[in-house]
Amino acid sequence: MKKMLIACILSLVLVTFFQIKLASANELTQDSEELRLQDMLMIMLTPNISEVLRNYYGPNTPGITPWKIHIIQTKRVQHFRGFMLDITFEIEPTTGHNVSIGKDRITYRISYGPSVELIEHTHLATYELPPELQEPTSFNFNHLPRLFKYVLSKPY
């Protein structure tokens, strides 16, 4: 009975180990033709992405970090070799400190011309900023050390 239990536990550990290895093997670690083409496409779409994010997030428009753009789907709208394509991707806009502030899904229709048309923008999530990056709501003199309070109280 003990041998059966040990065999089951050992097999579970080995299966879990191999699944972790396989999952990490799916991550890209080398440059490839496909990766370069995806990166070029994202570089070309950056002005359009910035405009969509500026319209959604307002004056505090976040930055675009190219490695935080993941292509979800591409498809041809017309027949085989038709030059009208839809591309859907998810992007995590960042602050100036490369901290993600949210997640958005954007779909564009790209066609010959060149023409780029926004089909859909969906805000998927809002992430909370770390405390050190949040703007203070009010300034509290009690947080300053005693020396600073003294200096600030003098009319120089």
Description:
The chain is an alpha+beta fold and 156 residues long. It is 37% helix and 24% strand. The chain has a four-stranded antiparallel sheet with strand order 1-2-3-4, covered by helices on one side. The radius of gyration is 25 Å and the shape is flat.
Order of helices and strands: HHEEEEH
Q: Report the biggest beta sheet as strand number plus sense, adding barrel if it closes.
A: 4 strands, antiparallel
| Structural class assignment | alpha+beta
Q: Helical content, roughly?
A: 25-40%
Oligomer: single chain
Strand runs, count: 4
Helical element count?
Answer: 3
Silhouette: flat
In round numbers, the mean pLDDT is 77
Give, in spatial order, the strands making up the sheet with the most strands.
1-2-3-4
Unreliable spans: none
User: How large is the share of residues in beta strands?
Assistant: 15-25%
CA-CA gap between termini:
85 Å
**What is the radius of gyration?**
25 Å
Topology of helices and strands:
Elements (H helix, E strand, L loop, with lengths): L1 H24 L7 H25 L11 E8 L7 E8 L10 E10 L3 E12 L19 H8 L3
Antiparallel strand pairs: 1-2, 2-3, 3-4
